[in-house]
Amino acid sequence: MIGKPAARCSSPRTTWATAHYWNAPFRDAGLGDRVRMVENGDQLLAYLLRREQYADAARYPAPGLVLLDLNMPRKDGMEVIEEIRSQEGLKRLPVVVLTTSEQPEDVERCYALGANAFVTKPVEMGRLVRVIRELYHYWFDVVSLPRGPEPGGA
């Protein structure tokens, strides 16, 4: 979800959210500078695979974690999970689904496709900010993550 500052890890970690309207909760959680956002599933995959305008790795660093909404335009979250898990260089990249869905079939399918976690997004802003902080703490302070993906996902 969020990237760690370079001083606290061996390589800069960045985060993914998939819609520009998520800026406020990340900013309020104090993590806005560690988040990279894209507009849709196609852009997310282009970023991860170093395609199109995202080819410059210095400008668009590899993420330490993907935070994914299921309800994205162009390519939905489940399609994105499938694509990420089909790319050799991205298979180990942690993917956390943060979405409004509470449907058990969405939870089951996301885990079957290879999501590392499924979190139902709270509707109240203060609670959403707390969830974002907790996810950051868990994924970047508690667990050990594999090294970031290779540029281009290969």
Task: Provide a compact summary of the structure.
With 154 residues, the protein is of the alpha/beta class. It is built from five helices and five strands. 34% of the residues lie in helices and 12% in strands.
Question: Keyphrases for this structure?
Answer:
alpha/beta; Rossmann fold
Architecture overview:
By secondary structure, this protein is of the alpha/beta class. The protein has five helices and five strands. Helix 3 links the parallel strand 3 and strand 4 (95-99). Helix 2 runs parallel beside helix 3 (77-86). The longest helix has 18 residues, at 125-142. Residues 1-12 have low confidence and may be disordered.
Helix content: 25-40%
Gyration radius (Cα, Å) is 14 Å
Q: Report on the biggest sheet.
A: 5 strands, parallel
- The CATH class name reads Alpha Beta
CATH fold label: Rossmann fold
How does CATH name the architecture? 3-Layer(aba) Sandwich
Q: Between the first and last Cα atoms, what is the distance in angstroms?
A: 21 Å
Structural class: alpha/beta
Question: Helices and strands in order, then pairings?
Answer:
Elements: E1 15-17, H1 23-28, E2 35-37, H2 41-48, E3 65-68, H3 77-86, E4 95-99, H4 104-113, E5 117-120, H5 125-142
Parallel strand pairs: 1-2, 1-3, 3-4, 4-5
Helix pairs in contact: 2-3
